[in-house]
Amino acid sequence: MSEYSTFPLDRHIDEHENLVHWVVHRQWLGSLPYLDAVQAGRIGLWRALRRYDQARGHAFSTYAVPAVQRAVWRAVVESQLPGHISLSRSGWLASPSFALNPTEALDEVARLVVSDALYDLVCELPCRLAYVIVTRYGLTGDAPQPWRAIAAGLRVTRQRVQQLHTEALLWLAHPAHSLPLRRLVGRNTVADYRAYHARLRAWQRASRRKR
Fold first, then answer.
1. For residue range 144-168, what is the model confidence (pLDDT) as tens digits?
2. Under 8 Å between Cβ of 13 and 49
3. Does 8 sit behind a cis peptide bond, omega within 30 degrees of 0 on the bond before it?
4. What pLDDT sits at residue 148?
5. Alpha-carbon gap, residue 32 to 195, rounded angstroms
6. Among residues 101, 91, 160, 108, which one has the least CA distance to residue 129?
7. C-alpha span between 197 and 208 (Å, rounded)
8. DSSP letter assigned to residue 199
9. CA 129 to chain centre
């Protein structure tokens, strides 16, 4: 086990504080206050410190920068959403039930692993696309919202919301974004990728016809 993965972590967090500020200075923060972004970055740094394996030969900064960027971006996305919608893991989808037999427990663990991968994927979406997906499917525990309500929240037309919804689904399904989730659910075959590209080409043709 490397020194980075042992307690206490406070010393390591202090040592890499400048890395957090370096990342935050280079990211778009929207309405998120700088200090809130720094705090989110520290959480990402803490996770990186817990998971970093020095034996793999990678520099810690190479491993930590993407982790900090993801944590800050999640905070930015959440800051753009209405106050009652949260992308924190505590409010994400359904909570697990522990009154399960062993078979049910394994199924529950598998579901939570998939849920975690989906959470990571949705948090990578641009803000408006994340809002459409979260509200349309009720991913934070709220009831799924109709197009009209989502349009009102974004102050756009229903047609525009449906376009954003399609864009979001295509972004989420892109192999470059969705590979970890695809592997978990067994949707990473050549046929799956061909089906995605067929949908993408159809959407691009439809978009060109509307111009």
1. 899 999 998 888 999 999 999 999 9
2. yes
3. yes
4. 93
5. 38
6. 160
7. 16
8. H
9. 12
What is d(CA 198, CA 122) in angstroms, rounded to the nearest whole number?
A: 22
pLDDT tens, residue by residue, 96-123: 444 445 555 556 556 666 777 777 788 7
Q: Residue 81 to residues 57, 73, 151, 175, 209: CA-CA distances in angstroms? A: 39, 13, 13, 26, 32
| 3-class SS letters over 55-68 | HHCCCHHHHHHHHH
Cβ neighbour number for residue 150 with a 10 Å cutoff: 23
CB 41 within 8 A of CB 72: yes
Residue 194, classified by CB atoms within 10 Å of its CB into exposed (0-12), middle (13-18) or buried (19+), is exposed
Domains and CATH numbers, the chain: 1-80 (1.20.120.1810), 86-211 (1.10.10.10)
What global pTM score does this model have?
Answer: 0.53
- Structural tokens at position 106: 């394994």
For the segment 46-51, the average pLDDT, to the nearest whole number, is: 81
At 24, which helix (H) or strand (E)? helix 17-25
For residues 26-49, average pLDDT: 85
Q: Of how many residues is the chain composed?
A: 211
State CA 38 to chain mean position distance.
18
Q: How many CA atoms lie within 13 A of 64 on its CB side?
A: 27
